[in-house]
Amino acid sequence: MILAGDVGGTKVDLALYNFQGGKLSLERQQKYPANEFPTLQDVVKAFLATEGTVEKVEHEVVAACFGCPGPVKDGHLKLTNLPWELDSRDLSKILDIEHIFLINDLEANGYGIAELGPEQIFELEPGDKSALGHRALVSAGTGLGEALLIWNSQAQRHLPLASEGGHADYAARTPDEIELLEWLTQKLGGHVSYERVVSGIGLKNIYEFLRDHKGMEEPSWLRERIETEDQNFVIGTTGEDGSSELTARALDMFTSAYGAECGNMGLKLLASGGVYLGGGIAPKILKTLQNGTFQKAFLDKGRLSPVLERMPVRVILEEQCALIGAAAYAEARTSEMTGHSERAASKA
Question: What residue numbers bound the domain in which 155 lies?
């Protein structure tokens, strides 16, 4: 049995997987509010205890992998949005699980893509489906994560590499975006990254820029909803259905910036294997992503636009992609270390 975890700034998503017929099979899954636990191991123990005695389940778990936001170095990680420092060796001893791995959350998403079926991916632009090659992953959610999926032609698989590209400098392209950059620079007192524009944080920033700086009207009904509900949910849903000019414009600016950065990643990696949109935002704004704004910004690269025209663009619909990828990584690494594959055993 494999224990997989997706550790975020506000929640920890845990799951137990087996392999059946050579594929991952979900046994149980549960989400926990991260701020209610002093450590990750406390979350894990609470999760395992609901299955029976912790000792019994730990004995059945042969490996674990946790996808976490931030750079992992030599099995060690300090989370940016939680007061937790994680070390794979310490976790292994405390939880009595021999093989424990910590990887970047976008790296986990990258491993998860290979496990998904066609129904779990939405094709935004077909591109050249026959082309093999590198893939780019750009995930807008609470923050902006980016990863490179390097194509290994000998092994016939992609190797995900984590990055912190979401924190690279935001590149404004239009008069409105230049104003947004100047407004954010003043608001933040300095550096403006792509994450400040293409993320849940970014959507909120764009909305406030249009309302407070550009003077777009915020109707009383919208203001009431913004104050009493999840702000990004309100902006996204009212922007999608066109009930608010302000939120529709905010969503349009967000989508354009998202397309531009995906195009940047496509060029930097020459992602002939496709550009993938991960995270929680893209599946919720599919109508907006298909109205041409995203693709126009994606292709707006001058002489290199024809290169991008051949790149497939796909949206990951599966919410548990990172969990699936963490489980797949744990099985593969444990197989390498022990010479025994759970996948192979499941096929026997």
Answer: 120-317
